[in-house]
Design a protein that fits this description.
The chain is an alpha+beta fold. It is built from 6 helices and 5 strands. The chain starts with 15 loop residues before the first helix and ends in a 37-residue tail after the last helix.
Length: about 260
């Protein structure tokens, strides 16, 4: 007799088929399937993402040691603006006060300082949320350029005492801008191609892909750390100027840079 003939057919009631429905895990029955569970979890994830996005315009507390802009509730400003670079002589002209476009158009109230809720560790180890000032770097960079322009123009201004301690300190302070702007330009890494004409290029009539300046300007105005009034702060005589850290409040000796 063949080996297989020793075995008799098992009835369906005794086979695994009969037990299949009773031994299945709960999630394989009806509504509670693995597929349903997956879609429920996915729906919960989407709901959380939507809620997070809806509150993205608020400033959440950040760690006091952090400078990550994404943690400070800054708006997302994409590189989606096509801007033609062309000469604007008003930014090259020697102007002062209310006629100076550097004063009127580039720096918002507060000079780019904004208030950011910051989580600060107390002496007892507890944490407390306080509003701390931060400076948006783009406005620091523009402030630096405006300051260097002032120093450059002051060389031909006989009304300025170039041997005064204030003037010497001012020039020394502005020297910081060269290295700061160097790193800012390298960080931006603009790879736009500029056509060469007769072995040189002036960079004009070339379209660059940029962020929307007005969006950043408006945000800085709304979140301004200091007075939001757009009144022009009167020019501070150089001899009375107090050297301050860069991107600071109003005293820099070369007039107001508030719009």
């Amino acid at each position: 007799m063949a080996l297989g003939s020793r075995y008799q057919k098992v009835m369906d009631t005794e086979s695994g088929k009969a037990l299949a429905k009773t031994n299945l895990p709960p999630f394989q029955h009806g509504f509670f399937s693995y597929r349903t569970a997956f879609f429920l979890l996915f729906a919960m994830y989407l709901g959380t993402a939507v809620l997070s996005y809806s509150y993205s315009d608020t400033l959440d507390p950040i760690d006091a040691s952090s400078t990550d802009p994404s943690l400070a509730g800054l708006p997302y400003v994409p590189f989606d603006q096509s801007i033609l670079f062309d000469a604007d002589m008003s930014y090259e002209a020697i102007l002062n006060g209310m006629d100076d476009p550097w004063t009127k158009h580039l720096l918002p109230p507060g000079r780019g300082f904004i208030k950011v809720p910051t989580e600060v560790t107390q002496s007892d180890g507890s944490t407390k949320v306080e509003e701390k000032p931060f400076c948006i770097s783009m406005f620091h960079q523009l402030h630096c350029i405006a300051g260097l322009k002032w120093v450059f123009e002051s060389e031909d201004n006989r009304a300025i005492n170039k041997t005064s301690e204030a003037y010497i300190m001012k020039k020394k302070h502005m020297a910081h801008c060269f290295d700061f702007l160097r790193q800012a330009v390298m960080c931006a890494g603009d790879m736009t191609l500029e056509p060469v004409d007769e072995g040189a290029t002036d960079g004009w009539n070339v379209t660059h892909t940029c962020r929307d300046f007005k969006t950043i300007y408006d945000f800085a105005t709304e979140r301004s750390e200091f007075a939001t009034s757009k009144e022009l702060i009167s020019q501070i005589p150089l001899e009375n100027a107090t050297p301050r850290n860069h991107c600071h409040q109003a005293e820099h000796g070369h007039g107001s840079l508030l719009s």
